[in-house]
Amino acid sequence: MVVYLIRHTSIDVPQGVCYGQTDVPLNPTFEEEAAQTSARLKGLQFDKVYMSPLTRCVRLATFCGYPDGERDDRIKEINFGDWEMQRFDEITDANLQKWYADYRNVRATNGESFQDQYQRVADFLNELRQKPYKQVAIFAHGGVLINAQIYAGTVKPEEAFGALTPYGGIIKIEI
Question: Would you call 116 exposed, middle or buried from its count of C-beta atoms within 10 A (0-12, 13-18, 19+)?
Answer without folding.
Answer: middle
